[in-house]
Design goal:
Helix content: 40-55%
Largest sheet: 5 strands, mixed
Radius of gyration: 23 Å
CATH topology of one domain: Aspartate Aminotransferase, domain 2
Number of helices: 21
CATH class of one domain: Alpha Beta
Shape: globular
Number of strands: 14
Oligomer: single chain
Bound molecules: pyridoxal-5'-phosphate
Strand order of the largest sheet: 2-8-7-6-5
């Protein structure tokens, strides 16, 4: 008999006790709604869909433990009790490895020993890591709760830019990344710093046999470390205020980053004394890939791997709408007394104090950062849910399943599958049709998929990345992809099968995919969120 995990189909890991039924929407009704919403995927009413792969952000189904924690939400303005358990959940997950304290249980169990609560929760102090506690968080603020990832990015980059301007008002800066996410790049550009991508397009699209997906992984999300050295040499150490590494690399087909790469980037950052940060959105999924495929990590727990990953960085921004397993939340954390704090605490003001002041005027008091007390409780529990290995196994396996089934039907997908999404390579998909890049075939594909099958995907190619507005040189860095981002814990394998059947059918009828013209707002920034479109049927 085959061992259980070798059956070729994933072991079940959860069941659903709440059901949301879909509406019975006809093709004609969806066609009408598409027209009325200018064929823009972001504007189409979600309630008219069967499956929604637009984003895995905030679209998570929470667990029963999270839902039951909501009732413990404390909406006090100053130091709500969730603040303490959330900060300690951050310490548990990012710093304590195999020895989490799970202080949240004190609240969930209704502990009423006041001395114990004061000693273990409300008056404990911590320092030296990402999450100062007690008096140290007051004296040296380093943990900034935010409503989502982009708010954390804005807080970090706008404050950093102010400090850089005080150091030298005329200098030009750049921030390298293995792949800037769209809002990350836009937040950096907004403060006149240049975002630089250090990934190799050809590596991403390299052939990889789908039969090998359970056996090995080339960690295509890695940063080009030689390119990083070269950038530092040519631009000069002083023009690089920060190095970012995105785990997993969302802009590069959701591919994971290896521990070896994290270490190598850390070494370079250390050598030049440049602060090194994660864009940590999918830290748990990334850790699972390391456990599954990187030599020497098979026997380590996901918690221990996460601890090791974060031991290499000086700070991080994170959207907790992704791996936080919650519907809302974000965080900026910087290492107490680390390179970043030391380097950018200038003219008598700590960088942490500047960050906290900006957080207060934009997001609110540091103990809630624009989240409700309920959100905070859901997050604190979610952080412990997301590091559970059976959950991560089912998450990664489901994504892989979708990619494998599509590949078996010869639909060209980027392989191996990343953690959170499957990406179709549209250039190969449309081979044999007379579709040109400027016809936005990926958009035409997404429109047809909604119309015929009620499935929403997202073009991340020439349309989203503004191909027609770019120079020849810039166009080289644009991949032609359509992304299917899978919401966490929401969909079943039969949903994947429906998706495979629908996409395969469209693949067979690719001649009928319409060209798409931009009817309004071609020149708008982040235009995929706002332009109007018109499909042109033959
Ligand atoms: C989603 C995402 C962000 C931004 O987070 P939001 O919560 O959507 O604001 C930043 N970086 C990466 C890699 C992301 O996937």
């Amino acid at each position: 008999m085959k061992p259980m995990h070798k059956l070729g189909t994933p072991v079940p890991t959860h069941k659903a006790y709440v059901v949301r039924n879909y509406k019975d929407v006809s093709l004609e009704q969806r066609a009408r709604a598409l027209k009325e919403t200018e064929y823009n995927m972001f504007s189409f009413p979600a309630d008219l869909l069967n499956l929604d792969y637009l984003s895995d952000s905030g679209s998570t189904s929470m667990t029963d433990l999270q839902w039951s924690a909501l009732i413990h939400g404390d909406e006090s303005y100053g130091r709500n009790k969730g603040y303490y358990v959330l900060l300690d959940a951050f310490r548990d997950v990012f710093e304590r490895g195999d020895n989490p304290k799970k202080a949240i249980n004190l609240v969930l169990s209704g502990e009423d020993d006041v001395e114990k609560l004061m000693k273990e929760l409300y008056l404990t102090s911590f320092e030296g890591g990402f999450i100062n506690g007690g008096v140290h968080q007051l004296a040296r603020p380093n943990t900034f709760i935010c409503p989502q990832g982009r708010a954390a990015e804005h807080l970090l980059f706008s404050t950093l830019a102010e400090v850089l301007f005080e150091i030298d008002p005329n200098k030009k800066y750049c921030i390298p990344n293995n792949g800037h996410f769209d809002t990350t790049g836009a937040n950096i550009r907004a403060v006149n710093i240049e975002p630089v991508n250090l990934f190799d397009k050809s590596i991403v699209l390299n052939h990889f046999p789908h039969e090998d997906m359970d056996k090995r992984n080339p960690f295509k999300g890695d940063m080009d470390v030689e390119g990083l050295e070269k950038l530092i040499q040519t631009r000069g150490v002083d023009s690089i205020p920060l190095i970012l590494l995105t785990i997993t690399n969302n802009s590069v087909a959701g591919q994971p980053v290896s521990m070896a790469n994290i270490k190598a980037v850390h070494k370079v950052a250390d050598k030049y004394e440049i602060p090194f940060f994660f864009d940590a959105c999918r830290f748990a999924e990334n850790a699972y890939f390391i456990k599954e495929f990187e030599e020497g990590y098979q026997d380590k727990s996901v918690r221990a791997i996460i601890q090791e990953m974060f031991s290499h960085v000086d700070g991080f921004t994170i959207s907790l709408k992704k791996d936080g397993l919650a519907n809302m939340g974000g965080l900026l954390a910087i290492r107490d007394k680390g390179v970043f704090s030391t380097k950018y605490s200038i003219n008598g003001t700590q960088i942490g104090t500047r960050l906290k002041e900006k957080q207060i005027v934009t997001l609110g008091n540091d103990s809630y950062g624009a989240l409700s007390g309920r959100d905070i409780m859901a997050l604190a529990v979610g952080l412990h849910e997301v590091v559970k290995e059976p959950y991560l196994r089912s998450r990664i396996t489901q994504t892989r399943y979708l990619a494998k089934k599509l590949a078996e039907n010869n639909v060209p997908v980027v392989l191996p599958a990343g953690g959170h999404a499957v990406y179709i390579d549209m250039d190969r998909f449309l081979e044999g049709t007379c579709m040109k890049t400027e016809d936005f075939g990926g958009v035409g594909f997404s429109i047809e998929l909604v119309k015929h099958y009620g499935i929403r995907s997202c073009e991340l190619g020439p349309f989203a990345f503004e191909w027609d507005q770019r120079t020849e040189e810039q166009r080289k860095g644009i991949l032609n992809l359509v992304r299917f981002a899978i919401p966490r814990n929401a969909y079943s394998l039969s949903d994947m099968d429906y998706t495979v059947a629908a996409v395969t059918e469209l693949y067979k009828n690719k001649d009928q995919i319409p060209r798409v013209r931009i009817s309004r707002g071609a020149e708008l920034s982040l235009r995929h969120f706002q332009t109007g479109l018109v499909p042109e049927y033959k």
